[in-house]
């Protein structure tokens, strides 16, 4: 399984996540977005509605506690349970959850406030034979893979 660590330095997660979510959905996949902070999930939901890149003007999504959670291509939740059948998970609050290891791929977003936890998670996951961790950082408007 692959874990992509995204260090947020220029843009907040609600600006970054829609690009990743779009690629997953366009490829026929489903995404579970996890945060223990309901306000962050609200902000991400707003970001998915106002996403302005082509080929769509918004990305369909819903909340895990809402109606039809199982059919949502992007599901926002406070727990790592893929009620929508997602094989991809985005941990957007800077906290690693071991339940993410059950997914095909995890996207782990962290910032300066949560960098210590990300470092510890990197060390732990790097020791696992079943996990391939990758690190991404922002350089200007681009994401580059870093050491």
Q: Can you characterise this structure?
A:
This protein is α/β, with parallel strands linked by helices and 147 residues long. The chain has a single domain (2-146), classed as 3-Layer(aba) Sandwich (Rossmann fold). The chain is 26% helix and 27% strand. It has 3 helices and 8 strands, in the order βαβαββββαββ. An 8-stranded mixed β-sheet has the order 3-4-2-5-6-1-7-8, sandwiched between helices. A hairpin with a 2-residue loop joins strand 7 and strand 8. Helix 1 (13-26) crosses helix 2. The chain is globular, with a radius of gyration of 14 Å.
Which helices and strands occur, and which strands form pairs?
Layout: E1 2-7, H1 13-26, E2 31-34, H2 38-49, E3 62-63, E4 74-77, E5 88-91, E6 105-110, H3 115-126, E7 132-139, E8 142-146
Parallel strand pairs: 1-6, 1-7, 2-4, 2-5, 3-4, 5-6
Antiparallel strand pairs: 7-8
Helix pairs in contact: 1-2
Number of helices: 3
Largest sheet: 8 strands, mixed
Intertermini distance: 19 Å
Shape: globular
The number of domains is 1
Name the CATH architecture. 3-Layer(aba) Sandwich
What is the percent of helical residues?
Answer: 25-40%
What proportion of the residues form beta strands (DSSP E)? 25-35%
The overall strand count is: 8
Order of helices and strands: EHEHEEEEHEE
Structural class: alpha/beta
Average pLDDT, rounded to a whole number, is 92
Radius of gyration using CA atoms only: 14 Å
């Amino acid at each position: 399984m692959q874990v992509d660590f995204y260090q947020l330095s220029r843009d907040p997660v609600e600006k970054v996540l829609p690009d990743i979510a779009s690629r997953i959905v366009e490829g026929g996949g489903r995404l579970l977005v996890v945060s223990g902070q309901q306000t962050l999930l609200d902000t991400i939901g707003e970001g998915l509605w106002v996403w302005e890149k082509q080929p769509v003007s918004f990305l369909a999504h819903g909340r895990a506690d809402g109606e039809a959670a199982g059919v949502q291509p992007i599901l926002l939740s406070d727990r790592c349970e893929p009620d929508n059948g997602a094989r991809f998970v985005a941990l957007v609050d800077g906290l690693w959850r071991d339940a993410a290891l059950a997914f095909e791929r995890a996207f782990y977003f962290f910032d300066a406030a949560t960098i210590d936890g990300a470092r510890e998670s990197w060390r732990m996951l790097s020791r696992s034979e079943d996990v391939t961790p990758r690190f991404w950082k922002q350089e200007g408007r681009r994401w580059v893979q870093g050491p």
